[in-house]
Amino acid sequence: MNPDNIQVVLVHTTHAGNIGGVARAMKNMGLHRLTLVAPKEFPTPEAQWRAASAADVLEGARVVATVQEAIADCQFVVGTSARERRIPWPVQDARHCAARMASHSSDQQVAILFGREDRGLLNEELQLCNLHCHIPTHERYTSLNLAMAVQIVAYELRMLQVADTYPVAEDAHWDTPFATSEAMQHFYQHLESTLTEIGFLDPAAPRQLMPRFMRLFNRVRLDEMELGMLRGMLTETQKSVRQSRG
Q1: Per-residue model confidence as pLDDT tens digits over 151-168
Q2: How far apart are the C-alpha atoms of 36 and 172, rounded to whole Å?
Q3: Cα angle 63, 94, 177; round to 5
Q4: Residue 82 pLDDT grade (very low, low, confident, very high; cuts 50, 70, 90)
Q5: Which helix (H) or strand (E) segment is 189 a member of?
Q6: Contacts of 1 (CB under 8 A, 6+ apart)
Q7: What is the CATH topology of the domain spanning 181-244?
Q8: pLDDT tens-digit series, residues 209-240
Q9: Between 206 and 60, whose confidence is greater?
Q10: 3-163: which CATH number, 3.20.20.140, 1.20.81.30, 3.40.1280.10, 3.40.50.12280?
Q11: How many H-runs (helices) and E-runs (strands) does the chain carry?
Q12: How much is the pLDDT for 56?
């Protein structure tokens, strides 16, 4: 496990104090890479006060405008989700997610996304993830404070680091680097335009076609060579269609 390759991403955080609480939770467990996606307020004195002795985590925080920008160079992305979605996605609890993250972090860039305090991550943001993390709280009170949620995941990662034992991913010794999130987003745009061009996708009635394709490829995880093969196939398909149309 390499903590330097793991980043915590907070999406549209409303309360500055929660950012400070997250920084403290991270430093307690040996994590230091914090990314903030369009926070309502940052930096603030409240965040500094809540961070206590983790002010260095706040000072090193990266602020970006979009989730896509936050995870552009990541090869394994986990999104926290408190509820079932219309399209089921691969989901595991914090302990099993931490094991996957620890294994991939040895030689890949890993991110875990935490959503808004009031409604979490949007479907569009969760569709960018390879895996969803669900913390099974008691049914009588399911709401978790943002810093508490981060603390739970960070603790599971810390326990793996202390024990220095975690399941090795089946693709741990892959022969080609895995595609980044940014490269996958370009691929999805290419795929959508090609499917529209050949008449397989109707933009007026897209149904859930693209989210299901995203779930498929995010679950499989393409490497750079596989991605290049698929994009080449899409390009040749577009050429053939255009030639046939004169």
Answers
A1: 999 999 999 988 876 666
A2: 29
A3: 65
A4: confident
A5: helix 181-197
A6: 102, 103, 105, 106, 157, 160, 161, 164, 166
A7: Helicase, Ruva Protein; domain 3 (1.10.8)
A8: 999 999 999 988 899 999 999 999 999 999 99
A9: 60
A10: 3.40.1280.10
A11: 10, 7
A12: 95
Asked if residue 211 has a cis previous peptide bond (ω within 30° of 0), the answer is no
Start-to-end Cα distance in the chain: 55
Q: What tokens appear for 231 in the block?
A: 């994009």
What are the structure tokens assigned to 71, written together? 């995870």
State how far the Cα of 104 lies from the Cα of 59, in Å rounded to an integer: 26
Structure tokens at 110: 């890993």
Residue whose pair of structure tokens reads 């090609």 in the numeric block: 194
Q: Whose structure tokens read 């995870």?
A: 71
Are 137 and 9 a contacting pair, CB within 8 Å?
Answer: no
The CB density around residue 55, as the number of other CB atoms within 10 Å, is 17
